[in-house]
Amino acid sequence: MAYQASDYPPFAVTVDLVVLTVRDDALQALVVRRGSAPFEGRWALPGGFVQVEEDVAAAAERELAEETGLQLTDVHLEQLATYGDPRRDPRMRVVSVAHLALAADLPTPVAGSDAADARWRPVDALLGGSRRLAFDHDRILRDGVERARAKLEYTPLAASFCGEPFTVGELRRVYEVVWGQPIDPRNFHRKVTGAPGFLVETGETTTRQGGRPAQLYRVGDATLLVPPLLRG
Amino acid sequence: MAYQASDYPPFAVTVDLVVLTVRDDALQALVVRRGSAPFEGRWALPGGFVQVEEDVAAAAERELAEETGLQLTDVHLEQLATYGDPRRDPRMRVVSVAHLALAADLPTPVAGSDAADARWRPVDALLGGSRRLAFDHDRILRDGVERARAKLEYTPLAASFCGEPFTVGELRRVYEVVWGQPIDPRNFHRKVTGAPGFLVETGETTTRQGGRPAQLYRVGDATLLVPPLLRG
DNA sequence: CCAAAAGTGTTCTTACTACACCCATGG
DNA sequence: CCATGGGTGTAGTAAGAACACTTTTGG
Questions:
Q1: Which residues, including other chains, have CB under 8 Å from residue B72's CB and lie 6 or more apart?
Q2: Which of A19, B7, B110, B181 has the fewest CB neighbours in a 10 Å radius?
Q3: What is the pTM of this model?
C-alpha cells in the first residue's frame, strides 16, 4: 500500500531506555517509580514522548540526560528495538522505540533526574523476581540485556562500563559480571591486549586493585573485535 | 519524563520492508515504483501505514502478503530498525519501523501486489548506481543487507533463501552470492553438515544441479550455528 | 615473608584451510 | 569416456583452554 498524505491513524511515539551499568559486581539497570496510573507505584524503565520536531535518536539522548545527567560522550547509546503492540499501554496507542545505554558506574547516584524515585537495581532481581515492571518493560529489559551480552563478544563495548582509564582486570570483571561466569585472567589478558585497536596504553599504572601495579588503558578506535571474545 | 495521557504529539507510523531473495546468482531486493508525490516515479521499498488496532509486527506481515503474496510460513521476517528523522517524509511526521524479510526465489514474479509496478532489483545496482531510492530507503536497504550478511554467519537463516528441500550446493551458492566471495565446496559441506541441528536429511536425492546425485535437506531446529560459518 | 593481582611461557587440543582424491550421475 | 558437481581424507597451521610460573606491589 502506498503512502497517503491524508487520513492516517494517529499514534504517540515514545522512547524507553534500558540503561545498564556494572555496580557492586552485578549488572544493574536504571528504573524509575511511576507516580501515576496506570501501574502507579510500580517500577518502569525511564522514557518519555518524542517531540514533534525531534529526531527519535535525539529524544533518547535527551531523556538519558534528563534521567541520569549523562552526556553522549560518557555513554554508549544505540537503538534496541521498537515495541508496537496495540494494548501495551491501556490509555492510548503508543509505539515505543527502546534504546540501550551502557554507562560506567556513576560516582553520584543518578543526578539530574526529574523522576520522583530513580535507582539502580540488579537485572537478576528485576527479571527473576515475581514483581513485574510496568507495561512491557520486562520484555524490553530482557531484550536489552541479551543485546548487551551478545555485543560484548565482538565489539569493544565492555569498555563503556569502565571509567577511563581502566585496567585489564577491571575490564575482565565487567565481562565476568555481564556473562555471569569466571574468565581465566591470563588468557583474557593476552586476548584483549592482542586485539588490534581495542586497548591503548596510557603509560600510567595503578595499584588501586591491590597487588602488582597494572597498566592503565583507554579504548582504541576499533569497532569490531578480531578475533571475538567468546563465552565458554 | 513520565507518560501523560493528554496532549501528546501525533505521529504516523509505517512499516517498510526490505525483502531480499537470491535470484540469477545475485542478491535482489523488492522495490515498488511510486505513483504519486513525493518522489513520484522513483523506486521505493514496499510498505504502508500501521492500522490503529494492529500490532506493528502484524502490519509488516500484512504488507508482505499484499506485496508478494508470501505467508509467514514461507519467509523469515524480523524487525530491522526504526527510522525517525523528523524530515524523512516531507509531508508529515512519519516514524517507520523497517523489517527484514528473506524469501526463496519466487516461481511467480511478485503475485498479489497492489503496487502498480513492483519488481526484484539487484542490491548492488540499487546501492551502487546514481539513482537513489525514495525517502531514506537507501539507508534502510543498506542496513537490511548488512544485517542479512551478518546473520548468515551465526544463524541458519541462509536456508530461508532456498526452497525446501535443498542441496548443500544450493545453500553454498546463497552464501557465495550474499557474501560476494567464493567458498571451498568441500570444507563448506563438512561445516554445514557437521553443525548440529542445522540440516536434516530427507533421504531423497536430486541431480538437478548436474553431476553426482546430492542429498536433499530441510532446515533443522537449531537457532544458532555452532561453530559459526565465517567469512574469509 | 605472605597475600594478591599482573603478566608471560608452554603444552595440549581443537578448529580452520588447502588440496588430493574418490563417487555417481548425464551426455 | 569425460565433464560436472557431490562428498571424504588428511596434513599443516592458527587459535583457544588449562595451568605452571615469574613479577611487583601492600601489609
A1: B61, B64
A2: B7
A3: 0.94
